[in-house]
Amino acid sequence: MIRRLHHSAIDKKKWDALVQNSPCADVYALSAFLDAVCPDWNGLILNDYEAVMPLPVKKKRLVTYLVQPIFSQRYAVYFQRTLTEQELDLFRTEIRTFIRIRINLLQPLFNTEKQRTNFVLDLSKSYEEINFGYSENARRNCKKALESALECRQTNDVESALRFFFAADEQNIYKPYENQIRALVNNCTSEIYEVCQGTEKYAVAIFLKTNTRLYYLFPASSAVGKQYSSMFLLVDTVIRNYAGTTMLLDFEGSEIDGIQRFYKGFGAVAEPYYFFDKRLNPQALFYKCFPSLLKRKSL
After folding, report:
1. pLDDT (tens digit, 9 = 90+) per residue, 19-32?
2. What is the pTM of this model?
3. Where does residue 134 fall: left (phi above 0), alpha (psi -120 to 50 degrees), or beta otherwise?
4. Residue 243, Cα to own-chain centre: how many angstroms?
5. Residue 213 shares a structural domain with residue 150
6. What CATH code is carried by the domain that includes residue 282?
């Protein structure tokens, strides 16, 4: 049996335990993350939390639809045991009931999705082995930052990091989402790194963390920090700290060549995810909103 519940009716301890122990565990599906970015999210739950899937629900007039929330890269059907095709069909059927769907999936469910690219770095090797895979450009920029007497350190000062992050956002891309960002940083497990020269701060990156991944979610550099290649030193420091562990550094991907080169410079490799886009035709949409008229027409 599959149920669709509003998040207020979900047992979030059971939900989070399943997501965290799933082979496809992701921070995006944890209840604290969903609460921050999608206030009306629903969940599909198979039996007694044997498998779950978040539904990022939005409503506009009479239409309920699914749309990928800000800062949330992808979703999946999360499970601990292998699901049968019949059980996966239960999830597909529920998803198809929505009039408009624009979501990213870790694995294709419908065979009509378009592939997109994430970048991840396996941190299980030693730092020396990982560093051997750096590009010449990445090594050169790390050296440049060190020769400029920059220092990277971890900090617990959330407020200072957020002030720097928003001050560096000169185009005000993130300012409209300040409440969501604060909720994510304060309610999810996070780590903050900063690059300084004396008392002057040049770069900050806020990572969200699960048992298996470190997510490069909120990086920012000042103009001077960019000149000094501060972010290269910051990422290199994180790699040093986690080298030899079972963690993955999740860069979150990009379709922009320059950003991809930055990720690949540290040896990150492509990890696909899939965009699913579905819209009902106007007539089907009309009768979906007014089902009584469809019944009357069939008489």
Report:
1. 999 999 999 999 99
2. 0.90
3. beta
4. 22
5. yes
6. 3.40.630
Q: The CATH number of the domain where 258 resides is what? A: 3.40.630.30
Q: Which residues fall within 8 angstroms of residue 50, CB to CB, at 6 or more apart?
A: 18, 79, 80, 81
Tens digits of per-residue pLDDT, 67-92? 999 999 999 999 999 999 999 999 99
The HSE-up count of residue 79 (CA atoms within 13 Å, CB side) is: 14
Give which of 158, 159, 139 is closest to 236, Cα–Cα.
139
Quick check: helix, strand or coil at residue 237? helix
Q: How many domains, in total, are found in the chain?
A: 2
Query: b or e along 134-165 (b: 16 or more beta carbons within 10 Å of the residue's beta carbon)?
Result: beeebeebbebbbebebebeeeeeeeebbebb
In angstroms, the CA 146 to CA 155 distance is: 19
